[in-house]
Amino acid sequence: MRPYNHYKTMNPNNTTNFSNLEDALVRVPYFAKVLEVGSVPITQEDDGTFQFFGSGRKVYEYKTPYDDIQGSEI
Fold first, then answer.
1. In sequence order, what are the beta bridge partners of 39?
2. Which of 10, 42, 66, 74 could cysteine-pair with 60, CB 3.0–4.6 Å?
3. What is the distance, to the nearest Å, from the Cα of residue 73 to the centroid of all Cα atoms in its chain?
4. How many degrees, rounded to 5, is the angle at CA 59 between CA 54 and CA 62?
5. Side-by-side strand order, sheet with 17-18
6. Displacement of CA 18 from its chain's centroid (Å)
């Protein structure tokens, strides 16, 4: 995996936290592609925000389309 500072490109606050689920769903495909991962869980945190790979309750898991997975050996 190549080094890349993905946090600076995720949202205006330079975080992976979102105030609503819709914003997280818009950003998650790009986030997964930058990290070159097959899935990204979105969690709802205690404060009501949503976060990628958070510690709260998982509300959605984005699965990268097969064609977008970099270096896949499947």
1. 63
2. 42
3. 22
4. 80
5. 17-18, 50-52, 39-44, 57-63
6. 11
